[in-house]
Amino acid sequence: NSFCTLLVSLESHTIGGRGYCPVPTKSMNTDAPLINDLQEPDAPHTAAGDEVVPISEGPEAAHVDVYEEAAASSLSADEMPPLRRVALAVMPVFMGYAVLLSLQERLRKHLGIEDNKSHAAHVFQTGVSLIFIGDLIFRLMHNVFLSFLRPRRRVLFAYVCVAVAMALIILVYYVLNVKHVGWVYVAYFIGGVGIGTYETNIVSCITPLGHGSKQWALLGMPLGYNGISIGAFLVFMAAPSSIALEASTFAVVLVLNVCGAVLFALGVPDVAYEASEDTFQKFFGDVK
After folding, report:
1. pLDDT tens per residue across span 203-252
2. Residues pairing with 46 in the sheet
3. 246-284: per-residue pLDDT in tens?
4. 265 CB contacts (<8 Å, ≥6 apart)?
5. Residue 52 pairs with which residues in a beta bridge?
6. Where does the sequence pass through the membrane (predicted)?
């Protein structure tokens, strides 16, 4: 009788195949140690009632993002592991902010406006001030103008805006050598739109990653800004009148913003969170 039970058990195990749990039968002695020894220790089996349930193989199927898991668990924001690379993703936007402000005098002189008290200089400075206008408008109204985008996509939109502002300045003023001030208005306003959009929406994206990740993101802001404002100052000490160096500074920031967008899209987890799903309807409800 025991020998027959063993044969039935072996047959059931063979029919189950690799990656499946054999169908239990009433005649099987499921507590028999011999049957358990025949199962591979590294091949997990799952059964639901009397049905055969396949188990996905491979590390990707078994992998669960640590931040998704932490958000779904009872871990507090202080207990979540910090995502340090978020600092690298944040830096390029604030480098763009710094280069637009720190190099404005060099850009003005490149346009042939030497006297900073002239009417032309006043017109130029008015164009530069649009960076603050764009920043203010989209810092307050991003939920209105960008209501069709989730905060995560608004962050990517901000990277694009800063990159476009850099590209316009490089192309119009350093490649085509245009001297018209009007493009300053366009480039600086677009840059302000990107910065205002980024500052508000990046917080919504990194909040569910915990306090540690938020601290690294906040660290990336001054690192990015001062990296350009101080770093460029030191570099221009070696070549104070280099036009190529000016254009290269804008170009480096352009490339870094493209890299920052890729790093954010691929390296910063998209964790579901109430604030990361802001829409115009939610904004309108909060205003009411």
Report:
1. 889 988 889 999 999 999 999 999 999 988 898 998 888 999 999 999 99
2. 53
3. 999 999 999 999 999 999 999 999 887 665 555 556 655
4. 156
5. 47
6. 86-103, 123-149, 156-176, 182-204, 216-238, 250-273
Low-confidence ranges of the chain (pLDDT < 50): 3-4, 6-30, 32-64
In terms of phi and psi (left: phi > 0; alpha: psi -120 to 50; beta: otherwise), the region of 28 is beta
* Vertex 190: Cα angle to 151 and 203 (nearest 5): 25
Q: Read out DSSP for 50-108? A: TEEE----SHHHH---HHHHHHHTT--TTTSPP-TTHHHHHHHHHHHHHHHHHTHHHHH
Tell me the two tokens of residue 78: 């202080």
As given in the structure block, the two tokens for residue 188 are 């600086």
Number of Cβ within a 10 Å radius of residue 159: 26
Q: Which residues of 91-103 are buried (b: 16+ CB within 10 A; e: fewer)?
A: bbbbbbbbbbbbb
**Does the domain at residues 83-287 carry the CATH identifier 3.30.420.40?**
no
- Provide the residue ranges of all domains of the chain, joining segments of one domain with +: 2-62, 83-287
Size of the chain, expressed as the number of residues it contains = 288
